[in-house]
Each structure stands twice: as structure tokens, then as C-alpha cells.
Amino acid sequence: MDGATELIPRLAPRLEDVLPNPEPETVKVLRPTPEPVDGPVRKAVRAFGELMITAGLVILLFVVYEVYVTDLISAGKQDEATTALDDEWNKDSNTVEPVDPQRQAQYDLADGKAFAKMYIPVFGPDYHFSIVEGTTDKNLEVGPGHYIGTALPGNPGNFAVAGHRVGKGAPFNDLDLLSSCDAIVVETQTTWVVYRMLPTTAEEAGWAEGKAKNPKCAKVAPLKDKANPGGSPYAKTVGQEIVTPQQGEVISPVPHFTGDLPAAQQAALMTLTTCHPRFSDKQRLIVHAVLTMSYPKAAGFVPPELKEQ
After folding, report:
1. CA distances to 188, 202, 227, 243 from 290, in Å
2. Which of 106, 144, 169, 211 lies at a CB distance of 3.0 to 4.6 Å from 163, suitable for a disulfide?
């Protein structure tokens, strides 16, 4: 072609031809919400809430201290008492003859000092505590404490021991879980002494036809006199009971008995006492057990009762 080629330019559409004219938007002005007046009622509510939070934290810290910190402290004291007792027994072991060990048992009953060990097999193989002389707060921080003046292990009368249920080692935390005929084994320097929990009130009537057939219960029976149950000195002595802190007769030589009974006629009992319910000292949980067996200590010998579960 002789002439110049004519180029037709491409026209871009205008924005206003594609989009409608936008309407002007209404501008909304946001204003801050006015704060409520901080009157006396709001101040009182806020102060009360802060007080409750603080009180809750204080209670929580107290519980942690009582349950965990005191356990750690008591565990250290229990270890020290047990080590001292083992050292004493080992030192005197060469002077102890295996003849009539119950007569030869010697106890250094100094306040706060351990003189025996206690095992409750149904609570597991790791359950063992050294028993100290005395039941003051300081004594019970170490471990279970022997009520001063009550019988000694294996002897007629009532070998009574107290222990904490929460914190401070809590040796009797699960005392309510003991059942009749469960063994409580006490180790002295010369002897293994075995007690078993007595029948409960609910079990006494049908004992001979029921649980008495269990081999563990062979030497356990209600202590009531069948011919004269109401007049028996042991009429009120059962495996477990709940009493008030004022009922000290539970640790008498014959529990709940106010008369005099010659030592030769007294049963050999062990009584365990602790607070009830947990975290309260309004009542006392009591467990009574009767002596069923004793063994002289010998090298390598372990009572078969320790293997019960």
C-alpha cells in the first residue's frame, strides 16, 4: 500500500462509565462509653471480691503447707528417729539372748524417742513407722506416738498409739480402711508382736457363721461374754468406733470399763486413735485390735503376717 496505515487507538473505558457514582457514605462518629460512677456500692463489692480472692489464696497455701510441706518435714524426722533406733538395736544385739524374749524386752521410754516399729501389711510393703514415746504435738510430728502409761507391746492391757491423719506424715490417713482380722505388726528389739482388728459392731452377731471361717480370723472373736454380754468388761470393745475427744476411756486398760480388772484377766489389746473426719478434730476414729501371735526375733526371720495383702 502506498499510503500510511492508519492506526485506530484503543480507548480504555473510564472508571465512571463502569462503576456507578458512589454515594457519599455517612460518617459515624464513635464516642467512648462513659464509665459508671465509682460509688460506695461498687467500691464495697470490689473490696469484698479482692478479700475473697486473698482469703482463697491463703487457704490454698495453708492446705499445701499442711498436706505436703509438713509431710516432708515429718519424713525427715521419722528417718532420724528410725536411724537412731536401728543404731541402738544393732549396738545392743550382741547382749540380747533369744531366751524368753518378752521378759527381756527393754524399752528406753524417753519422751519423743522411738522404741518400736509398726507395720500394717494391707497398706502395702512400704508402710512402716517407728513409734515414739508420748503424744504431744512435737512427738506426733515425728511419727505415731505411744500414750504414756498405757501397756507396752504384747503385754496385758491396752497398748495405745495416736497418729495424724492429714499432714505431718499422716501415718493413720487410711485407718478407716482397716477391716476386722487385718494384721497390725509391731517390732520390738526382741520380738515380733501381731495384733488383729476386732470384729465391728455389725459383725458381732453373725461372727461364728461368717467371717470367723477366714483363716486370718482364727484367733479373733468378739470379746463379749456370750453368757453375760451386757456385764462383760469388754462389752463395748469393738473393732472400730467414732468417739468425742473427751472419751479417754477408749485407751483405758479395758476400753470403756470403769471397774478394776486384774491384769491376769485383761486381754492384750492395741488401740489406734486419730482425728475424724479428715481435716477436722471434732471426733476421734478408734481401732481396737487383739494380740494373736508373737515371735522371737531371729536372723533372717520375717513374720508371715507381713506378707499379707
Report:
1. 17, 18, 21, 20
2. 144
Question: Cα(first)–Cα(last) distance of the chain, in Å?
Answer: 117
Alpha helices in the chain (DSSP H): 15-18, 40-64, 70-92, 101-104, 137-140, 201-204
Cis before 277? omega within 30: yes
Please give the Cα distance from 143 to 287 (Å, whole number).
17
Segments of the chain scoring below 70 in pLDDT: 1-37, 57-68, 94-105, 226-227
- By the 8 A CB rule, do 130 and 194 touch? no
- Domains in the chain: ranges and CATH: 62-307 (2.40.260.10)
Grid cell, residue 138, equals 512435737
Query: Structure pTM?
Result: 0.78
Can you give the pLDDT at residue 105? 63
DSSP string, the chain: --SPPPP-PPPPPPHHHHSPPPPPPPPPPP-PPPPPP--HHHHHHHHHHHHHHHHHHHHHHHHHIIIIIHHHHHHHHHHHHHHHHHHHHHHHGGG--SSSHHHH------BT-EEEEEE-GGG-TT-EEEEEE--SHHHHTTS-EEPTTSPPTTSSEEEEEE--SSSTT-TTTTGGG--TT-EEEEE-SSEEEEEEEPPPHHHHTTTTTTGGGSGGGTT----S-TTSGGGSTTTT--SEEEE-TT-GGGGSSSTT--S---GGG--EEEEEEEEESTT--SEEEEEEEEEEEEEE--TT---GGGG--
Give me the pLDDT at residue 99, please: 45
Question: What is the pLDDT, as a whole number, of residue 196?
Answer: 98
